Amino acid sequence: MHCAVIGAGIIGLSIGWELARSGYQVTVIDPAPATGATHAAAGMLAAVTEFHYQERELLHLSVPAAAAWPQWAQAVETASGRSTGFEACGTLVVAADAADRADLSVLAEAQRAVGLGIGELGTAAAREIEPLLAPRLAGAFHAPADARTDPRRTAEALVAALESEPGVAFYRQRATAVVQGERGPTVQTVSADGELAEIEADEVIVATGTGRIGEHGAPGEGLTGLPAILRLPVRPVFGDVLRLRPTATAPRPAGSTVRALVSGQRVYILPRRDGEVIVGATEREDDQAGVSVEGVHRLLRDALRVMPALAHYELVELTARARPSTPDHLPLLGRIGPGLIAATGFHRHGVLLSVAAAAAVRTLLAPAPEATAPRSPPTILDPTHLASFDPWRFS
Amino acid sequence: MHCAVIGAGIIGLSIGWELARSGYQVTVIDPAPATGATHAAAGMLAAVTEFHYQERELLHLSVPAAAAWPQWAQAVETASGRSTGFEACGTLVVAADAADRADLSVLAEAQRAVGLGIGELGTAAAREIEPLLAPRLAGAFHAPADARTDPRRTAEALVAALESEPGVAFYRQRATAVVQGERGPTVQTVSADGELAEIEADEVIVATGTGRIGEHGAPGEGLTGLPAILRLPVRPVFGDVLRLRPTATAPRPAGSTVRALVSGQRVYILPRRDGEVIVGATEREDDQAGVSVEGVHRLLRDALRVMPALAHYELVELTARARPSTPDHLPLLGRIGPGLIAATGFHRHGVLLSVAAAAAVRTLLAPAPEATAPRSPPTILDPTHLASFDPWRFS
User: Fold this and answer.
1) Contacts of residue B290 in chain A, CB cutoff 8 Å?
2) Is B300 on the interface with A (CB under 8 A)?
3) Predicted ipTM?
4) In chain A, what are the domains?
5) pLDDT reported for residue B373
6) From the CB of residue A135, how many other CB atoms can be counted at a distance below 10 Å?
7) Fewer Cβ close by (within 10 Å): the C or N end of chain A?
8) Using CA atoms, how far apart are residues B161 and B170, in angstroms rounded to an integer?
């Protein structure tokens, strides 16, 4: 069975590799793999501290995904011979003022109510875990189970793992249309030079993130040919992300991911082992693809409030990318037609949920006939939970 | 007469072109022209508002330089066929709070006392000139004579003007030593591939900015061969400079350069005609060549305090470069030996004073014998005023 995956962000790459190691023939189609949201993402694998009110259904994906990540990262590293940057690190959540602490306290209670592991710690104990925290904070919580990965390295490792599979083809071209034929769907592509190609498949998985999905039959940049009455309301929520490096004399954080609420605004500080510190992220719906002056100012201000030593760091990279978001902040994950599956709309959770997306797509497919001995472990998802993510729910 | 200019920042390029159009044979030596401080500089030509206490001698250079700039820019544009970005724009100087206004008021008085044209304006009148100024400011002053240029375009135009001169050679190599021979000095150079060359000259002009000057005879990266007892105490003062671009819907400033004092910290906002807005600049002596987190935060905070609409701009470039500074903040400009002239240490004033540096070097040289009809206008400098800038004053 041949599966064509349109889009090679972390979602498409993960689906492609999961299918390849489960015995399917796989073609991945993307003119520039891992250059969208994956390129900006910090890589928090934070089923606990990413949980917010009204996103309860997400737990059906996020909790099994978080549980599966250590093994998944290990498998990707073994297959590719590369590091993913996966680290079990825990998250400290700190409050700048009393109102922030009250907010975080209620949120932590909601997180505990759904079974997530987070406890109030006190600021002195938090500073024992992370001595670079500002002395004047109003509260601190700890979610020891949260982990993180490095999305850029993970994507590189997934590309390497995919390319080492015999049944995998990589098309670095843009998919323009999915055409339904008698024998199944065909993906039409165009190269940078304007060369056209057609890829016949048994199943097509649309993992385009914020890549535009065109109106049915309409010409233009977007992917056409999806069912005419289907609405996939993915909108871009832009995020600014900063990358810092320590100067020779600057102190380095101990290693926990730090999330903070500073006068009601969220900021995270994610220190990597090599010294890089990622500070993010804004959530802008202003349709401005460039890095926002206001966004950078706000992130620096709040990060310095929480970890003053970052003042002495070098600001080496500013990145803005769009997250693919939906009206209910839940992904669009499921079958959209014969031979057609959607896996997009993962909003802020794409890196964490990439594993769940891969597992979900596998459960939606007929078992690969040629898979006499698949190397993939049993699926991590209960398929009955996928109903909440039905891509048809807005149509 | 053959002059070799070591260093092709805006100082070396201006000297080279002034000498070339005055009838000298010129060789300019730099592995990467205009990539140092010139690349970061905003290009304020602000003899008035750059004047500070204890820098009175600088007026002997800055006032004639400011007066000469319009004609100089015109001549460079004519010779190169390129725009320099020169604009007569005036400077608004604004105070964020009452203490800032008191500071600026005393400074304006000192500026007027030495004959510079600056007057208190009031914030309402300032907002008539620049409607994007924040409503809540404590004071405003106006220096209508200040101008500006675009250092990157000016340097490109100077390179083009130089390359169009028949008597000019451009060596994109690194100068390693000046060797005194019987017939005059020789500059030794090395290319990126390690190829060595020697350039004989009648006069060598050292315009290396913060490019390292090595100890006499010592090996290493710096330029060697200068007089052994000469001290040229140039130290790097790093500056962070931000470049912003308006989004499609963001309002654009009217056009004056805006300088501000915000709780005692200086910031400038320089809007170019093409929409680019430059925000600068920190002054760091921390020996960190990279862009400073603290610096960017401070500049954004203070610029947004003065011109809130910049929040909606895109942050397109962060640049940090070192200014070549001296203990008394005056340049090192004069003869340092037979056939040897120094022109460096211009600190924050390099772009404005490039014209003065060019004129000064011309006055230090014997007239070019082949210059039957030099195309350069009479020198703008009174040579008796060069004594304050004697490069030997620290030796």
Assistant:
1) 245, 247, 314-316
2) yes
3) 0.91
4) 2-74+151-234+327-394 (3.50.50.60), 91-144+235-325 (3.30.9.10)
5) 56
6) 8
7) C
8) 12
